Amino acid sequence: KAGVTQTPRYLIKTRGQQVTLSCSPISGHRSVSWYQQTPGQGLQFLFEYFSETQRNKGNFPGRFSGRQFSNSRSEMNVSTLELGDSALYLCASSLQGDAYGYTFGSGTRLTVV
Amino acid sequence: AQSVTQLGSHVSVSEGALVLLRCNYSSSVPPYLFWYVQYPNQGLQLLLKYTSAATLVKGINGFEAEFKKSETSFHLTKPSAHMSDAAEYFCAVSVRDNNDMRFGAGTRLTVKP
């Protein structure tokens, strides 16, 4: 059974650009969550999607957005990149949500220069 | 909102010694509690979860955790540490239907030969 797949693994972008990260959940999983991980702030919740609907959102500016497609694949977008957006972005999938526990992907390492 | 506090950002034990990683949670309603492990350059792997069934939860790799409501704690233990247990460990909390799992700051476990 394939795990959670995140692409790309590494990304270097320039300040002011925008970026789109992709996440393919485990087959059958309908809930997808995104997290930002940095040494200073740790793991911070971005948002969670279930059946193409955003069910919850963390405390991030509107530059951070996401969506989920009918096949449960998800993308997150960051516009007008800032140096502070450099982080490991982790996607996690679950059958229906938190109670089932999440399976995480290996993450996308974004570096903003 | 729910939150967790992990006591000790770094724990060091000798191989074969008891591992004890501490986690205290804050939640106004009965929580779901989780422990995850992260190895370098990888995503997070679920070790175990508490979702209101048995208070003593057994997980993978010989780890277990006990939910203590009176102490609002969910400490992770392993009787005998192996070198392969060296990693970062995260405690997480969520509440029913919120789907916004919150993580502690993490505890880095070092195992000395």
Layout of secondary structure:
The complex is a heterodimer of chains A (113) and B (113).
Chain A: E1 5-7, E2 10-13, E3 19-24, E4 31-38, E5 42-50, E6 53-57, E7 64-68, E8 74-78, E9 87-94, E10 103-104, E11 108-112
Chain B: E1 3-7, E2 10-14, E3 19-26, E4 31-38, E5 44-50, E6 56-58, E7 64-68, E8 73-78, E9 87-95, E10 102-103, E11 107-112
Parallel strand pairs in B: 2-11
Antiparallel strand pairs in B: 1-3, 3-8, 4-5, 4-9, 6-7, 7-8, 9-10, 9-11
Q: Structural class of chain A, please? A: mainly beta
> Can you count the helices of chain A?
0
Name the poorly predicted regions of chain A.
none
Q: How much is the radius of gyration of chain A in Å?
A: 13 Å
Specify the biggest β-sheet of chain B.
6 strands, mixed
How many helices of chain B does DSSP assign?
0
Query: In angstroms, what separates the terminal alpha carbons of chain A?
Result: 37 Å
N-to-C order of helices and strands of chain B: EEEEEEEEEEE
The total beta strand count of chain B reads: 11
Instruction: Tell me the quaternary state.
Output: heterodimer
Structural class designation of chain B: mainly beta
Low-confidence stretches of chain B: none
* Biggest sheet statistics of chain A: 7 strands, mixed
Largest interface: A-B, 24 and 25 residues
Mean pLDDT of chain A, rounded to whole units?
94
Mean pLDDT of chain B equals 93
Task: Tell me the strand percentage band of chain A.
Answer: over 45%
Order of secondary-structure elements of chain A: EEEEEEEEEEE
